[in-house]
Amino acid sequence: EGHTIGVLTVKFYLDGKRIASGAKDNTIRLWNASTGECLQVLEGHTDRVNAIAISKDSRWLVSGSSDTFVKVFDLWIGDCVVTLAGHTAYVTSVQISADGSRVYSSSLDGIIKVWDVNAQQCLATFVAESVVYWISVSHDDEILAAALKDKSIKIFNLSTNSLSMILKGHEHGVRCVEISSDKRFLVSASTDCTLKSWSLESGKCTQTIEAHDFRLLYCSMNKDNSLILSTSTDKTCKVWDLKTGQLITVLEGHANWVLAGDWSPTNDIVTAGNDTTLKVWGQRDTQPDQDKSHTFDVTEVSASQDNKYLASASKDKTIRVWDVTQGRCVSMKSGHKDWVNTIAISRDSQIIASGGKDQTIKVWSSLPNQPACLRTLTGHSDYIKSVAIASDNKTIVSGSNDSTVKLWSVETGICLKTFHAHSGLVTSVAFSPDDKYVLSAGRDSVVRAWSLETGECVFQVSGDSKWCKEV
């Protein structure tokens, strides 16, 4: 028997063989990670269990609930042995110190508390001045990071019980935060749909990943901090390479919001869903998506000049680069928020341009170890239908459903020229061999040539009633 209503929180035991989960049904359940068997049900809360944490020796489980209480369960006997009262609103997050002697809790009342478990007393109280969605404590119990509704992350020094840093950069509330094991950085997940990495030395944001199309709810790093898991209201989980920002894989299977997740020591993943289920994903499930094919229709392909590589665009919002000889995908790139309609590889095979239903053009390095988008070009007011790259890689031309053709600087991302090209949507664009002209074709059955020096149409030819698809 499993949870009867949405699962809100989940954690692996340190050995990775057991799992604990908390849910809206007010219970905590302990599971065999291999068989899925429910081993025990821990009861005591009178409202939903929002957060749990397990001590390193796997003896103590701490839980925080909407009943405003923090409870400590002895997992050896399966009973609640300590109840900590002091919050005036839902407890949103809990953590436990390395030695199990201290518990940390946060609440919707904007208060963070540090508790002495043995004495059952509050040792310190921090006023966050905003709703606290999540807290993370460093492994040496020296710093605490709080994810706040006011879009900020606050860092508290636990030795001096003082605020030491405020991190700002998210555009909406920060739902989750986690400090790296070496205390050099932290990661955060926000309802602005992004993951961010922050330097704990400088306080600056060092990386932003446009992770999901809908709100992020949770993030978690694996043991060596090389990978990060994100969960979202879009019903998916995603695994990212933290160093490069590359999307490794998408985990799909939940029928509702994915509310939390955790890593085992061997990089298995467990996720908790509002659909009442827990899902365990093995290492095979989390293999890089570049080992898989597109999941929706392929919209366009472009071949390198030496015919060694193909780049493909798809309705699954991704771009893939394929080694023709090996017949395998060598790189996957994600960043478009909707279908990718068109793609082009430069003549020297160094860069790729893509255009999407999201009205943007994106510029990418073709190298597998550089998956992040180099530049996003915005200015069109409708779908991008076609893109082309100049032979010197300095400019890109795009054609759109908005009836215009635009010339862009690759270096600056600035639109250099706009050609009001056709009376209907633009179906195809191309550079002349000497890069002095741009050709465009439209649904108006006209092909035009444009001088890049003057911006004027220097040639046009009209076809029959059928529109031209490619130039």
Automatic annotation (TrEMBL):
Record-level GO BP terms: transcription initiation at RNA polymerase II promoter
GO cellular component, one term: transcription factor TFIID complex
Recorded GO MF terms: RNA polymerase II general transcription initiation factor activity
Keyword S-adenosyl-L-methionine: no
Pfam families: Beta-prop_WDR75_1st (PF23869), WD40 (PF00400)
Signal sequence, renumbered to the chain: none
Coiled coil feature spans: none
InterPro entries: WD40/YVTN_repeat-like_dom_sf (IPR015943), WD40_PAC1 (IPR020472), WD40_repeat_CS (IPR019775), WD40_repeat_dom_sf (IPR036322), WD40_rpt (IPR001680)
Keywords linked to the UniProt accession: Repeat, WD repeat
Residue windows of the WD repeats: 1-41, 42-75, 84-125, 167-208, 209-250, 251-281, 291-332, 333-365, 377-418, 419-460
Name the record gives this protein: HET-D protein
Organism per entry: Rhizoclosmatium globosum
